[in-house]
Design goal:
By secondary structure, the chain is of the alpha/beta class. It has ten helices and ten strands. It has helices at residues 8-18, 29-32, 45-48, 51-54, 57-62, 64-79, 85-99, 194-206, 225-231, 255-263; strands at residues 3-5, 21-26, 106-111, 124-126, 129-136, 142-144, 181-185, 209-213, 235-240, 249-252. The strands form two sheets. A seven-stranded mixed β-sheet has the order 1-10-9-8-2-3-4, sandwiched between helices. It has a three-stranded antiparallel β-sheet with strand order 6-5-7, with helices on one face. Helix 9 links the parallel strand 8 and strand 9. The longest helix has 16 residues, at 64-79. It is elongated and about 60 Å long. The two termini are 19 Å apart. Bound molecules: ligand BJW and zinc ion. Residues 136, 138-139, 141, 174, 176-177, 179 line the site of zinc ion.
């Protein structure tokens, strides 16, 4: 741990000052130190449960109760968590960029996380949606929802094995049309919204420094972003507890520690 290659000095003094368009691409590792489990690491969600049974449109069609139990569990968990030092380092860095005079740089955060722990970032793209947004499966109405619990019948089911099998009438329903709600997240085999993809494209096309933070780089389309930036001549800096991408700069260690040092 704390084995810096490339080194905080290098990225701090040279690259952070000379790069014009800096983008952070974040994954579950960013929130790990807040106590939110990652997907594929130790204690990760997918270790205990089959992703295909919980985060696909087919799973929701077949067993909406199971999927809602999973998302209810994660909403309740995240409501007890706070942003950590890595989230704060990104907020502080954005403030620095925004308050510079003249404004010579841009900074954007693209997160795959659905936990909302980056909500203090102004230029934030939540590419996989949010645990705290719902979408009606009937009328398409989208809205924020921080209710705890999101449906009365889900209360106290957090420790279930997602096998409670509630009837549809007891699951979260639309206040407009009474249709069944779903979490407004992007499941496997679903396409990202076009306007989100376009925003991401704007950021990546001009990006000359990509900070890849706490993501395994296994899930597309995010998995392709580093090579996209790199192919256009941008530099890649990876922050992770283990080796993932081939990068120009590698900061191996918990991002709560290494990110703050690098962005100072
Ligand atoms: C730390 C740390 C600390 C820990 N400090 N670091 C080939 C090409 C293109 C697409 C595909 C393809 N093959 C298959 C696909 C489809 C699929 C895909 O990519 N599958 C792969 C598994 C191969 N992709 C999709 O389906 C996407 N849609 C799509 O492609 O549409 C077109 C299409 C249509 C029809 C059919 C097929 C394709 C959508 C993907 C949506 C992903 N959704 C999820 C769930 C979202 C909602 C929810 O959260 O419930 O998003 S899956 C899950 O993975 C979640 C995450 O955002 C995402 C990424 O995970 P992440 O963040 O990287 O987490 P981990 O756990 O994997 O990694 C954590 C990292 O942190 C590790 O590296 C640790 O070391 C590190 N770490 N502690 C620093 N303290
Ligand atoms: Zn509706």
């Amino acid at each position: 741990q704390g084995q810096y290659q490339g080194g905080p000095q290098l990225i701090d003094v040279t690259l952070l000052k000379t790069s014009k368009h800096i983008v952070a691409l974040c994954g579950a590792g960013l929130s790990a130190e807040s106590g939110v489990p990652t997907f594929r690491g130790e204690g990760g969600f997918w270790r205990t449960f089959q992703a295909t049974e919980l985060a696909t449109p087919k799973a929701f069609e077949k067993n909406p109760s199971r999927v809602w139990e999973f998302y209810h569990y994660r909403r309740e968990l995240v409501l007890t968590k706070k942003p950590n030092r890595a989230h704060k380092a990104l907020v502080d860095f954005e403030k620095k960029v925004l308050s510079a005079d003249p404004k010579t740089q841009t900074f954007a955060v693209i997160t795959q996380n659905v936990d909302g722990l980056s909500s203090n970032i102004k230029n934030l793209i939540e590419m996989h949606g949010s645990l705290f947004k719902t979408r009606c499966t009937k009328c398409g109405d989208r809205r924020e929802n921080y209710d705890s619990p999101i449906a009365l019948a889900l209360k106290g089911t957090e420790n279930s094995q997602f096998d409670i099998n509630l009837p549809i009438e007891k699951l979260p329903s639309c206040s407009k049309c009474k249709g069944l709600l779903r979490p407004d997240v992007v499941w496997f085999e679903e396409c990202l919204d076009n306007d989100i993809l376009m925003k991401i494209n704007v950021e990546l096309e001009r990006c000359d420094l990509l900070l890849v933070i706490g993501t395994s780089g296994l899930v597309y389309p995010a998995a392709a972003y580093a090579s996209f930036v790199s192919a256009r001549g941008g530099k890649i800096a990876v922050f992770n507890i283990e080796k993932t991408y081939d990068a120009d700069f590698e900061f191996i260690g918990p991002c709560g520690e290494v990110l703050g040092n690098a962005l100072m």
